[in-house]
Amino acid sequence: MYKLYCRAYQKAFKTAGYVLQWRKPELLEGENSLERLPEFIKQKSIERLLIVTDKGISSLGLMDSLKEGLRTEGMDYVVYDRTVPNPTIGNVEEALELYKVHNCQGIIAFGGGSPMDCAKGVAARIARPEKSIPEMRGTLKVRREIPPLFAVPTTAGTGSEATVAAVITNSETHEKYAVSDTVLIPHGAVLDPLLTVNLPKHITSTTGMDALTHAVEAYIGRSNTPETKECSREAVKLIFSNLYEAYTNGGNMEARRNMQKASYLAGRAFTRAYVGNVHAIAHTVGGFYSVPHGLANAVILPYVLDYYGAAVYQPLAELSVLAGTADPSYTEEGKAKKFISAIRQLNEDMDIPGKISGIKENDIPVMVKRALDEANPLYPVPVIFSEKDMYTLFETIMEKEAAGEPAYR
Question: What's the 3-state SS for 82-118?
Fold first, then answer.
């Protein structure tokens, strides 16, 4: 009976999706496209901006040309750079205060997924000042237009420049959850591959696997449209053709450019077609142990795909041929299993561990409940997991280590 309820809920949301307004950000693409952003914003009659970023970005000087351009165009700005990995409600509230004190009119999110999530949280609070972040948890709780929001991704993975979601952590309860609304899709985005050239190898690998998880979970789910399917297919092809090259040869501009495009396309796909149980587990592990989101997805993805079994053979077989991981003559099951094996091999080639260490047995019951609460009834997953299924998967992905060891490697 519960599964029937979940499927009915998902069908209702899929139907509603056809009447919602799915904004597509205006894109500035290519090398040095960041230099065009100040003039682009100036055309929107904006004079004062909040830039949301983190300490790492600030220290690298990646924003120097942007700040100079804003000054040249006569625009004032204030920088919030205290965003942490897995941004917190506290981050959102601090950045919001800066926005209000400086009478800002728009927001630039500059960095990886964390600054973008924080910036979207600020935008949601501006649109709904009477609501707290926890009160906007879930789907379509904002429903008012946000101030102009411009996304500048410095990684190729989250796809946040194209998505409806802001994932925020409650540092008191260790819950990590999404505020999702179509109004949170940025108005503009910059895909400048030069911003990703100097990424550490482990960031290139894990954010790239994050994008792959988005594309795969969107494709195997039950809320696809012809457009989301095409976005997922193209993203998977680009990732398998370019991620390892970007990882081993960071200066390859074509690989960097293709990975940015893949991330954007995967973001477009999952923001309409949703993610699934991989993300539900990854968000929970991230909330408890601060495991970076891309790393968690990379580790968890093949285990969940294996667990789905025959329910995902057909879509994974299609992706396997597209990605070049299986011969078209293989059986459907054979193609699907080759695809899962290729994901594991890609992880191994990029030194991504096969398990997540540091998970505590006594935390699992709470994590199981939170993962199920996130996934059901919203995510249109191929298989609706029970409590027993979730327990099995948490036990499978965990690597037991001595007390005091880190939660990830």
Answer: CCCCCCEHHHHHHHHHHHHHCCCCEEEEEECHHHHHH
Conformational region of residue 324, where left means phi above 0, alpha means psi within -120 to 50, and beta covers everything else: left
Q: Is 223 helix (H, G, I), strand (E, B) or coil?
A: coil
At residue 157, the pLDDT reads 94
Rounded to the nearest 5 percent, the helix, strand and coil shares of the chain are: 55, 10, 30
Kindly report, residue by residue over 143-171, the tens digit of the pLDDT.
999 999 999 999 999 999 999 999 999 98
Contact between 293 and 282 under an 8 Å Cβ cutoff? The reply is: yes
Taking alpha carbons only, the member of 278, 322, 326, 284 closest to residue 302 is: 278
Q: Which residues contact 158 (CB under 8 A, 6 or more apart)?
A: 112, 113, 116, 207, 210, 211, 263, 267, 293, 294
Tell me the residue length of the chain.
Answer: 409
Question: From start to end of 112-194, where are the E strands?
Answer: 138-139, 149-153, 165-170, 175-180, 188-191
- Can you say how many angstroms the Cα of residue 27 is from the centroid of all Cα atoms in its chain? 18
Kindly state the tokens that stand for 408: 């990830």
Q: At 399, which helix (H) or strand (E)?
A: strand 398-399
DSSP 363: G
384-396 pLDDT, tens digit each:
999 999 999 999 9
Q: Per-residue pLDDT tens for 124-136? A: 999 999 999 999 9
Distance between CA 2 and CA 258 in Å, rounded? 42
Which residue, chain included where needed, has tokens 């450019």? 257
pLDDT category at 399 given cuts 50, 70, 90 is: confident
* Strands 76-80 vs 48-52: parallel, antiparallel or unpaired: parallel
In one-letter notation, the amino acid at residue 174 is H
